[in-house]
Amino acid sequence: MTHDWTRLPGRLVVVSGPSGCGKSTILRRALDDPTVSARLSVSATSRPPRQGEEGGLHYEFVSRGQFEAARDRGQFLEWAEVHGNLYGTPIAPVIRSLEAGECVVLEIDVQGAAQVTRAVPTADTIFVTVPSLDVLEARLRGRGTEPEAVVRRRLDNARRELESIHLYTHTIVNDDLDRAVSEMVALLVGAGCKGADRDA
Ligand SMILES: Nc1nc2c(ncn2[C@@H]2O[C@H](COP(=O)(O)OP(=O)(O)O)[C@@H](O)[C@H]2O)c(=O)[nH]1
Ligand SMILES: Nc1ncnc2c1ncn2[C@@H]1O[C@H](COP(=O)(O)OP(=O)(O)O)[C@@H](O)[C@H]1O
């Protein structure tokens, strides 16, 4: 499916960063800010749900077979295998939002981000990083959502993901959370994702 993305009035923003850097925490707070108006795209994944994760809200949880069938029908804007699981952005809701002039945020990995920027060169890209790999390790372990082998795999991948940081137009170092959230809010507003409480 090819689309003329430049014709769509909405804005597309891509956010990436290694597992445990804090991108979900920052985005949850930034998207709640009244000066921001944006919708977080819900990805499909073959990863099993973590405790507390809800299908349709955090992800659409599907089997590997269901994911591959949807991918082969062209239903994803981008997709990638990350830490051994498949993840993809359903294309139809993104187009609907962009046609309606809305702002859509994709929280996706570096491989997916490269696919999106090839298809939609006008997309804004934000990389969330951490002050050091030790901090990343502490956050990932502190979150307590993954078994040891999965934590190790995610830390190994983090080194490779950090090599792509220069491909992004903006970077946020998530040291102090409040500051990182303020920076995300400013970048989203700057990208055109303005809420009603923001002057035009
Ligand atoms: N390419 C791609 N990556 C995704 C998508 N959804 C999530 N991801 C990425 O997959 C990675 C793992 O996500 P997840 O298992 O939720 O772990 P987390 O990053 O520790 O919260 C992260 O880098 C996400 O940004 C998607 O639709 N496409
Ligand atoms: N600035 C910060 N300082 C300390 N802990 C943080 C900070 N930002 C996030 N965290 C914590 O780090 C862990 C990983 O954050 P999360 O948002 O799940 O990361 P990601 O979505 O990038 O995998 C969570 O337990 C979160 O509460």
UniProtKB/TrEMBL annotation:
SUPFAM superfamilies recorded: P-loop containing nucleoside triphosphate hydrolases
Guanylate kinase-like domain span: 10-189
Residues reported in the UniProt entry to bind ATP: 17-24
Annotated catalysed reactions: GMP + ATP = GDP + ADP
Major subcellular site: cytoplasm
Principal EC category: transferase
UniProt keyword annotation of Ribonucleoprotein present: no
GO molecular function, one term: ATP binding
GO CC annotation terms, alphabetical: cytosol
Domain of life of the organism encoding this protein: Bacteria
Localization: Cytoplasm
EC number(s) per entry: 2.7.4.8
Keywords, alphabetical: ATP-binding, Cytoplasm, Kinase, Nucleotide-binding, Transferase
CDD domains in the cross-refs: GMPK
Record-linked HAMAP family: Guanylate_kinase
Family of this protein: Belongs to the guanylate kinase family.
Name recorded for this polypeptide: Guanylate kinase
Annotated source species: Tautonia plasticadhaerens
Source lineage: Bacteria, Pseudomonadati, Planctomycetota, Planctomycetia, Isosphaerales
